[in-house]
Amino acid sequence: MDPKQFGVSTLPYRHEPSGPIADELLVGSNKGKLAVVTGAGRGIGQAIAIALARSSANVAILDLSVESQERTKLACQKFEGVKVEAYKCDITDVQGVRDTFAAINRTFGPVDILVNNAGVAHGKLAFDETFETFWKAIEINFKGTMLCIYEVLQSMRQRKSGCIINMASRAAIVDMPRGISYNSSKAAIVRATASLQEEFELEGLGQHLQTYCLHPGGVWGAMATENTSIEVQQQIRPIFKDVPELCGNTVAYLASGRAKELRGHYFDCRHEIERVCSFGYETLKQYGLYNLGMKFLPGYENEP
Ligand SMILES: NC(=O)c1ccc[n+]([C@@H]2O[C@H](COP(=O)([O-])OP(=O)(O)OC[C@H]3O[C@@H](n4cnc5c(N)ncnc54)[C@H](O)[C@@H]3O)[C@@H](O)[C@H]2O)c1
């Protein structure tokens, strides 16, 4: 992938947590809250769960098996006073998700922070996969995300409090081969995040209820290696420069309510979060920054 095709940044990108999202500044920032993290068994989801536990939130972690979450659970339990529970849950299973959230509610009470992190990328050309594998990825990435959102929506609205953070990807905003299901499901997540925030704003709840979606950076791990040949892995390895904690700490920071100016928007964890916030919610919206958009020829505007 040639960076010149997409533009080369003149501002530095961050590849690991520092500044306002440094570990020590997050401690205690989510005390007393309950966070749910999907796909928490490994990779970025694991880092998110640990960062939230470090920020003193209680954490309910979800993945396809309880055993796969043992390491995450142990790491979260190291933080004093933090309660952690692991749940086996396939986020595409409607009844399974409902039962899991009911169980979480019985153990912890209502959810304050929902992090929809679980996702898959098959890395296949459309000719090389079936409709069923294409659709399965859409179901995990988009249906699973929305299903979990619907499980917390009414309660958050009634309590006038909550934060929903969805894992998108840079794949949502560029056209790339080997991932029609991935790219389109991630784009759907970006649009759903922004539209849901619009509904909160409509009710005057923007300061109380926030949605965000993220590009976590490029994190080398199972997702990049599981379905790719050694040859492709060698080609793509250089663009995976980021540690999972960059996203983990960004999530804890967003959940603490310190970056509400970004609500409804897509945020690339490699950008300087305080700088982006300093432009303000209205400016970001007015100029269509940090959201999906479409450009037309001069003279045509995006008229309703
Ligand atoms: N790794 C990257 O560079 C990168 C870049 C952009 C976006 N992302 C996104 O970040 C998220 C995490 O990526 P990662 O690299 O840590 O991936 P990963 O494959 O290491 O982890 C994903 C986790 O989700 C779980 N999962 C998969 N299907 C599930 C289902 N149906 N129900 C419940 N859990 C399920 C897996 O078991 C796994 O533990 C994904 O949404 C991914 O699309 C990753």
From TrEMBL:
Gene3D superfamilies: NAD(P)-binding Rossmann-like Domain. It holds the Pfam family adh_short. InterPro entries: NAD(P)-bd_dom_sf, SDR_fam. It comes from the Eukaryota. Keywords: Oxidoreductase. The keyword Oxidoreductase applies. Belongs to the short-chain dehydrogenases/reductases (SDR) family. This is Uncharacterized protein. It comes from Exophiala sideris.
